[in-house]
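User: I'm preparing a small set of examples for a lab meeting where we compare how different chains pack in three dimensions. I only have the primary sequence for this one, and I'd like the structure in token form so I can line it up with the others. Please keep the answer compact; I'll paste it straight into my notes.
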Amino acid sequence: MTFLTRHILKWVRNIFIGIFLSTVVAVVVLKYFPVYFTPLMFIRLGEQIKDGDHVALHHHWVPIEEIAQPMVQAVVASEDNLFMQHHGFDIDQIEQAREEAERGKRVRGASTISQQTAKNVFLWPGKSYVRKGLEAYFTLLIEWIWGKQRIMEVYLNSIEMGDGIYGVQSVAKLHFNKDAKDLTRREAALIAATLPNPRRFNSANPSPYMRRRQAQIVSIMGKLMRIEMGYGANDDEFDTSKIRKRKKWRASATLTWDASTTKMLLPAKQMSLTD
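Assistant: Understood. Below is the structure token output for the 275-residue chain.
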């Protein structure tokens, strides 16, 4: 091996070590400090300016203790039923999404709340293998360094919840004229119903589809184990003895509506229950 080759390899090694250490430092720092801005916020601002639209960025950070517990329960019910059980990735859902894509079905996301948080805070939108690889890397880091409560806190403060609206405190103020800690179960479920496409679905002006989705989320919220995070999480009035412990619980994202009986019919669930 020539001197030049050794020098290049040493230089490349040092670059990778530097990148690794810098990302770890960034994750450690953001474990203790609020995330006031994300890459997506700047991307959306650039799009607004480019399109000549009104420039809007509504974002107000609040600690998890000032976010209503039903909001936590609602996003777990809507986005990631196994949030408290997995270590960043829902392998079953990833495999199911892959099989559906191979059968020619519509490609759907299988990202967990942890993966979405990693993407929102550290990366950019996109579906390239490089971006997905970096997302997996940052997901492992935040699961290891932050833990579930911090991931949920950052998620609920950074997720896009409307056109120019980021975080639950901002959407609560703008759409419901109240603080995030005062959101009801149905309001939380309605906000969660927008998350597949918050720029299309508006919790201030919900469509019939959103109302159906809201009802589904409320139903799932009551079936999942109560997530002990957020304002009111330790209220004595909530009787946890009435809820059977579920290690795994999934609900189909599909709803059917029986107009003749005006009842919503939920499809069969996949469950694995323990006492």
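A couple of notes for your slides: The chain has one domain: 34-273. The CA atoms of residues 94 and 110 lie 5 Å apart.

User: Perfect, thanks.
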